[in-house]
Amino acid sequence: MERDEVYVPKTRSSLGLPDKEKAAPLDYAELLGDTPIYTLFMLTRQQLLAFPAYLLFNVSGQPNYPRWTNHFDPNSILFMDSQRNAVIMSNLGIGSVILFLRHACSVHGFSEVVKYYGIPWLLVTHWFIMITYLHHTDPVVPHYRGKVWNAQRGAAATVDRPFLGWQGRFFLHDVAHYHVIHHFFPKLPFYNGEEATKHLKAFIGEHYISSDKPAFRALWENYNDCQFVEDSGDVLFYRDRKGRAVRRPSGPF
Prior knowledge:
By secondary structure, this protein is an all-alpha fold. It contains nine helices and two strands. The chain folds into two domains: 13-149 and 219-236, no CATH class; 160-210, no CATH class.
């Protein structure tokens, strides 16, 4: 939990839920029970706005980071000293794009810029958030607190998904198909992901997680089933809107 960078689970207490021993079904229904249409609205909001919200305000990021943590401050806790100049260059690039878009609006009109830049940008944001959310948010993915966390456990706490089938492999360069191996070897070229994953699966065995559930079904179900984790314990799994978990740690955690 303390090492998670994004999609950090909310805890029982942060949602204002009573203790597990005292909570009644009505408590969960009152705080977590939403109509399907409202859930769809909130999910759509996530898909379109979560990426800029994370970059600007660290929304869904590590809550232990200082207030106002963001991805545009070169001195942010998110970056190493060696990355400071790269952040500055990135900010200059973003500023240049903003100036270009402003000029494009004055020449071609705001609606044309929205049509040819704004809407495609929102679609890219949707796919990016959907892929990363489903990588790191699932009822079967464990989350570790500091005492039992290690780099290997943290790297294995993600899900490979055959996202969009061959289209995902071709257009998205296997980003969803072979994400677990990326956690272990972030500099591995994407075209070696399939071969490397075969060896990783053989090595880590049951700790390798994959799911062939259709992507949009997984998005809807995980958004509903991954509500919070407990305040206590070192190995945690998401609980749903009724306070139920599909997995529990087998050891004394």
